[in-house]
Design a protein that fits this description.
heterodimer; A: 174 residues; mainly alpha; globular; B: 689 residues; alpha+beta; 5-stranded antiparallel β-sheet; 13 strands; disordered C terminus
């Protein structure tokens, strides 16, 4: 098998792994507070992060720390929000909401940065909004709150992406 | 992130809702961290160079689909059709958006415009992946600006970090990763790769700009290096002027220098080579030759660290929970320590004139109990509502303890409906002899307690509490009492649904046993009577005028289905659903009750849909003439109706639990699970501490 095919399988595998996050976590969130669950999830990866930091210790500067702090904070917020949303609504609904991020990012780019948005993006946005409303309306008991929190989680991810964008622009246009 | 996680956990973490099942939950956390975060990160970093970002974006659109599939198989989670339609629209929107990004990028002059949209799609899908890579990305950017990138980056970064540079995430954005690789490995081989990858004209704006920047940066570095081989002179003004290189000019330069072999003199004279000819192996820096080995070593180290740390850390955290809490706030710990629960169950004894046999058994499971004093034992008491002084506490029995755990099962001798009368539990330490007849008056003898909260739900016009909802569902419902039916909504939903299946099957048997059309017609009337309710079946106009009511007017008064939105009596399915909704909004409900209510709500929606199909078939059949009822079309309808009635009543087989789920029988059994009382240490202990 060539490397492209292998990469396709790997990314498909990634997608499956990501997809299982919601169902696997959902069951545990019935017993563990989502804040504590996400805390344990992040803390479990601390050894790996420490390993990376040690590996790159000579390149750590104040600017690096600042950037890591900003991006890590926004991502952390998004992860916690998704977990809280997941607790209150179905895993299926929660899995669908982050898909809105693409449109939301484009919409924010249009609003904040005056960047043009393609017509297809507007069509995609309209479909996504209709889909979201259907998801929320058909959400189970307590699902409205959870759906809105999951949507908020998607927004935080969008903010995180924009923060990445800004940091990147600063990097190239000091 | 870890610092924030600690802070958020300390501020908002609810240790009341921390009841892990060890080691299962530890494995789940390990799986989420390792398989849903770490492994995808590594796979992405290693594999992304082989695929275009668009391909990756399209693959990642499948994430919610796999999420829904996983939820279906792992949690047996089923959304109403509208929910899946909504999810499908979101996915279609994402596909159109990604596709639109591809189209948009092919428009000259719009290079900068499509990027955020495409980037966001990729980043949304890769949010977890990036969690680990932020420091690497940031570090790399730092060196880019300093112009010493080629010297300081580790082999790992040389190979992978550039992929993070321009995109803002771990996926390659705009195909810039090859250029990044050129930047950081500064070898001829990679320069060739960069040029070959800059295939799309619209990309050239950025790639050449960066390439030019890299040339300038490398020229700053090259005079001090003895291992860089360069050929093309770089004008001094290029060091200051980072701009766009014309693609054709670059290609011409590449062609003209393609076969030249660099010399040591050239290598130190500030010239730059971007030939398509790979360098001889001897020209590759030793660091690059070791990079693969070191990369494998790094990955192995990371995996080992992850496994070892998780194995050690998680059990320690789980087992240390009480001590962790104790150091934070001893008073709160005492208030929230849950030692078990009490559940109401039904023996199934039937008394048509009363609710006896419902909720007539109590099961108490306690753990982590302290040991009572000598000649003392723990006694369990069922407590009436605080406002009801006419009912005395009921002794459940003495708890037999073993290793701090105790189990007690109590069955009322007269099968009284205990949930209708009692709402609290106390466990008190009292003398063995004589057996106590009343709970202790001294509050210090109270060891554990629990109650069903009776606080009205804010904003609820009916002022229903958690206790109200539980009683309406399982013990006694005022609407049913007005009709003259004992018990809660659940038991009548269960019994009437069973009748629907029974009459549907009987009608089909009547067709098979000689096409007895009169019997079929009567069974259809009964089915519609129970589905619509005696109060609504005639106004609906779906049965022939003058049809008699063939069911018990009391039992059949309330229908299973909502026929008319303005009807006076809500249907059973709607009524149960309303109380489940009220339950999860009522103050004091537990997480387990909420989870169960959500599952039951899903099942109720499915069964409602199935009963509506039963009704459609019944309406068609009841309007048929005798000759039509004898036809095969009638049999087909009867078969369809029985199938749907059976599915609604018994549910669907689930091989993972080796049983049926989501049917009315399943709802009836599971609904009893919401009638539980968590048992905790009493409030008085807080004051003592």
């Amino acid at each position: 098998m060539n490397s492209k095919g292998l990469a396709c399988i790997a990314f498909l595998f990634n997608t499956v792994l990501f997809g299982t996050y919601y169902a696997i976590s959902k069951e545990v969130l019935g017993r563990i507070d989502p804040i504590l669950f996400t805390f344990f999830e992040i803390i479990t990866l601390v050894p790996v992060a420490v390993g990376i930091l040690i590996w790159t210790r000579r390149q750590i500067t104040r600017k690096v720390l600042k950037r890591g702090f900003l991006l890590g904070s926004s991502l952390c917020l998004a992860l916690f929000t998704i977990a809280i949303g997941l607790k209150d609504t179905t895993a299926t609904c929660t899995a669908f909401f982050p898909s809105l991020g693409g449109f939301l990012a484009a919409f924010l780019a249009w609003m904040a940065l005056r960047q043009p948005v393609a017509k297809t993006t507007w069509i995609a946005g309209a479909l996504s909004i209709i889909g979201s409303v259907l998801l929320i309306v058909n959400a189970s008991l307590g699902g409205l709150r959870g759906s809105l929190i999951a949507l908020l989680g998607g927004l935080f991810f969008t903010g995180y992406v924009f923060l990445s964008e800004r940091e990147q622009k600063d990097e190239h246009d000091p | 992130m870890a610092l924030w996680a600690n802070l958020i956990m300390l501020l908002f973490g609810d240790w009341n809702s921390f009841h892990p099942q060890f080691p299962k939950d530890a494995w789940v956390i390990l799986y989420v961290a390792g398989a849903c975060t770490f492994l995808p990160t590594m796979l992405t970093v290693l594999m992304q160079k082989h695929l275009s970002p668009i391909t990756i974006s399209f693959i990642y659109i499948l994430e919610p689909v796999f999420g829904a599939i996983a939820a279906f198989f792992y949690l047996h989670e089923v959304l109403p059709p509208g929910g899946y339609l909504g999810g499908g629209l979101v996915v279609v929107g994402a596909i159109i958006h990604t596709w639109g990004s591809v189209e948009f990028r092919q428009s000259p002059g719009l290079v900068q415009k499509w990027r955020p949209a495409l980037l966001s799609v990729q980043a949304m899908s890769a949010h977890l992946v990036e969690a680990l890579m932020v420091p690497v990305k940031a570090l790399q950017g730092q060196h880019w600006l300093r112009g010493v990138i080629a010297l300081r980056l580790t082999p790992f970064q040389q190979t992978h970090a550039p992929l993070l540079l321009m995109g803002g995430d771990v996926l390659p954005c705009e195909g810039l990763s090859p250029i990044g690789r050129v930047s950081f490995t500064w070898s001829q081989t990679h320069a060739e790769e960069a040029i070959l990858h800059g295939q799309q004209p619209d990309r050239h704006f950025r790639t050449t700009a960066i390439l030019q920047q890299e040339r300038t940066t490398m020229c700053d570095y090259i005079p001090t290096s003895d291992k860089a081989y360069v050929e093309t002179p770089v004008p001094p003004d290029h060091r200051q002027n980072i701009g766009v290189i014309d693609e054709r000019q670059s290609s011409a330069q590449e062609t003209s220098t393609e076969e030249r072999v660099p010399t040591d003199e050239e290598s130190t004279s500030g010239t730059y080579h971007h030939s398509a000819t790979p360098l001889p192996e001897a020209h590759v820096p030793p660091r690059l030759r070791r990079s693969a080995t070191r990369r494998v070593g790094l990955l192995a180290t990371m995996v080992a660290l992850l496994v070892v740390a998780s194995t050690v850390l998680l059990p320690a955290l789980f087992s240390a929970q009480p001590s962790l809490l104790g150091t934070m706030n001893p008073g709160v710990v005492a208030a929230v320590t849950t030692v078990g629960q009490v559940a109401f169950t039904s023996s199934g004894q039937l008394d048509p004139s009363s609710s006896k046999g419902l909720n007539d058994m109590i099961t108490m499971n306690l753990h982590h109990l302290s040991t009572p004093s000598a000649r003392q034992s723990y006694y369990g008491w069922l407590m009436p509502d605080p406002t009801n002084e006419t009912i005395k506490p009921l002794l459940l029995g003495r708890l037999s303890m073993e290793d701090g755990t105790a189990q007690l099962t109590y069955a009322h001798p007269d099968h009284e409906n205990l949930l209708a009368l009692y709402s609290g539990v106390e466990v008190a330490e009292q003398p063995n002899n004589p057996v106590p007849t009343m709970p202790p008056l001294d509050p210090k003898a109270l060891r554990y307690e629990g109650f069903i909260p009776n606080t009205p739900t804010p904003g609820d016009e009916q002022h229903y509490s958690l206790l109200s909802h539980l009683r309406h569902l399982l013990a006694q419902d005022p609407t049913l009492q007005d009709i003259g039916l004992p018990g809660g909504l659940d038991i009548w939903l269960y019994r009437n649904s069973e009748k629907i299946l029974e009459w549907s099957s009987a009608a089909r048997d009547s067709w098979a046993g000689g096409q007895q059309t009169d019997l079929i017609h009567r069974q259809m009337l009964r089915v519609l009577d129970y589905l619509d309710g005696a109060a609504s079946v005639f106004p609906s106009g779906d049965i022939p005028p003058g049809s008699p009511l063939l069911v018990d007017p009391k039992v059949g008064r309330m229908g299973l289905l909502e026929v008319n939105p303005t009807q006076m009596l809500p249907s059973y399915l709607t009524h149960v659903d309303l109380h489940l909704q009220g339950l999860i909004h009522a103050p004091g409900h537990t997480q387990a009750q909420q989870e169960l209510a959500i599952k039951l709500d899903n099942a109720l929606k499915m069964d409602t849909s199935l009963f509506q199909k039963v009704r459609q078939d019944a309406v068609k059949l009841v309007r048929m003439r005798n000759t039509q009822l004898k036809s095969n079309a009638a049999l087909s309808l009867l078969n369809d109706m029985v199938t749907h009635a059976n599915a609604a009543y018994t549910g669907q087989f689930d091989p993972t639990v080796d049983g049926t789920i989501n049917g009315i029988v399943w709802i009836h059994n599971e609904l009893q699970g919401v009638a539980t009382i968590p048992i905790t240490t009493p409030t008085q202990l807080i004051d003592e501490q």
